[in-house]
Amino acid sequence: MKQLISAFATLIIASLLAIPGYAKTIYIHDNLRVDMRTGPSVEYRIIDFLRSGTSMEVLKESGEWIMIRTDGKEGWIQSQYTTEEPIARDQLARALKQIQSLQSENSSLKSQLSETRSELGGLKSDHNKMSNSTEKLQQELDRIQKVSRNAIATEAAYRQLQEEAELLKVDIEKLKVENIRLSEDNLKEGIQWGAGAVLLGVILAWLISKSSAKKRRSEW
After folding, report:
1. Is pLDDT of 214 > 70?
2. pLDDT class for 23, splitting at 50, 70, 90?
3. Per residue, what are the HEC states of the chain?
4. How far apart are CA 63 and CA 78, in angstroms?
């Protein structure tokens, strides 16, 4: 039993050592058509023909033969017809494709450059418009500030006039009170003078009547 297990392990290790290039990619040489067979010998049946430039994945190697996989098929081919680099035709096609891609990218970049220049021109125009608008806004701000200063001065003058008007009202009220007092004083003085005049008239009338009575008595 132990010998069987040991032999099985040795077989597994040998199988692993016989596969040095897992997932290795190779290509068929230029201007060749290679037979893919069912086994590592020309005696095995041909199952497909591989054209020049065909990409393959290496599965196993056995002497001059390698087991490969391509397009979902597996088989054996001779390693002398393979290369690890893509063939010149494929490299040229790839280079041409890259050139076309670069040309397309270059054209796209030129278009973007043109659009960027156009946008730059638009931005310059907008900048000029904004500068003009800023200048107009500054002028309007200066005008508003001037109007504000005038308004402030007008407000101050208005308040001063209000204060003066209030003072005048106070003076007028004082004058009214003084006029009333003077009127009352004049009235009192007039009454006093009137009373004095009446009293004087009464006295004069009494004196006159008394004098007349004396004259009449003397005549008698």
Report:
1. no
2. low
3. CHHHHHHHHHHHHHHHHCCCCCCEEEEECCCCEEEEECCCCCCCCEEEEEECCCEEEEEEEECCEEEEEECCEEEEEEHHHEECCCCHHHHHHHHHHHHHHHHHHHHHHHHHHHHHHHHHHHHHHHHHHHHHHHHHHHHHHHHHHHHHHHHHHHHHHHHHHHHHHHHHHHHHHHHHHHHHHHHHHHHHHHHHHHHHHHHHHHHHHHHHHHHHHHHHHHHC
4. 9
**Structure-model confidence comparison of residues 10 and 201, the more confident one:** 201
Confidence of residue 2 (pLDDT cuts 50, 70, 90): very low
Domain spans of the chain, in order of start: 20-86, 88-177
pTM higher than the cut 0.70: no
Length of the chain counted residue by residue: 220
Work out the average pLDDT over 172-177. Answer: 83
Q: Quote the CA–CA distance of 123 and 120 in Å, as a whole number.
A: 5
Half-sphere exposure of 177 (CA within 13 A, CB side): 6
Q: Which of 53, 79, 56 is nearest to 66 (CA)?
A: 79
How far apart are alpha carbons 213 and 206 in whole angstroms? Answer: 11
Kindly report the CATH number that applies to the domain delimited by 20-86: 2.30.30.40
